[in-house]
Amino acid sequence: MSAAASLAHQLGAKPPAGLTLTEDETQQLADLIKTARATQGAELEASLLKALEIVPRPLRGTVRKVVGL
Amino acid sequence: MELTRLASLLGCAEDALEFLEGQSHDALKELRDKLTDRLFDANRDVLLGLAKTTKIVPGGVAAKIATMAFPPQLAARVAGVMETDAAVSLASRVPLTFLADLAPKLDPRRVTPILEKLPPQLLVDAGQILGERGEYIAMADFVGVLPDAQIQRTLGVLSDEALVRTGQVIEDPARVARILEMLPHHRLQGVVETAAKLGEWDAVRRAQPHFSDATRTALRAIADDLGVEVPADLR
């Protein structure tokens, strides 16, 4: 995948036309977004598990269902 | 300013974005908007589920979950999909410092209806903490979406330095002019003195075309009275 395609993939949209980056810089930006998305996903998973520990036991099943666990 | 915002979104050091220096403001702003949408909309179903959870569990438990299990960035994303009344109720139950922690991570565009319904004093108190923490970019972003009356209420708890530094990063110069016009004379004096001391005149310079004649005259008179040095183009 080219750096430009990688950036578009990570951004989920066409990168701004006014952005003038070299191939390396484009890849650098794509990698930073990839890391941020991965961190965000891991953070979400950890938070869901932590939240479930706080939810009173009788409600855990309902909450699990609502958040799709 | 855009690089600081992007670094906050990406959770990286500003130095890591050095390669973006020199890009146009418009391109970086567009990049930030697209990145905000990408990150805030990820796992939307789960976020909606979490938002629903706050209505299933008792209010105290919801507040405990928010403060103990949600880091600020995630709390900000959940706030962005919450129903207004549920979010307002939750905001009133969590510690003020938690609100101040998540405020810089919010996308103000997504929480405007919530901000409009929050108790005014809660916003003042949160604004005071943000000012003390030097969260000028977050405050500037809120200025863009809060009504004048709320801004006026908050001005009283912000230092002159917080006002000058926030003004520097407010995107809309007309808002800067509006805020300067809201300030009573003694606060305007403090702002002029602080701007001179810090050498930070950019906000006033950008706002200048939006000044009323009265504000322009008042600023000139204050500068003369205080004997502060004002850049020639602002005279």
UniProtKB/TrEMBL annotation, chain A:
Region (Disordered): 1-20
Organism of this sequence: Nocardioides jejuensis
Record protein name field: Uncharacterized protein
